[in-house]
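[PROTEIN RECORD]
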Amino acid sequence: MSFFDKIPTSTFVIAALTLGLAPFFPEPHVWEKIKMLLAGELHRSIDIFDLVFHGLPWGLLALKLVRGDRGQAV
């Protein structure tokens, strides 16, 4: 986890806002897949992959925020 702690939080924010929300129109892909998951319609492999692919930056950002600024140079 020391490598993870050395990565700046801004990197995770940028990844979450770009890859995590792409494509932006008509609605973010991750939002569409979360709605499908909650409706019980997430069955196809490509949909599950999309949820993981577009959700990963958000998960990493959440982990970074929970862990705080450990290992950041002052």
User: Anything to note?
Assistant: The helical segments are 2-6, 9-18, 29-39, 45-67.
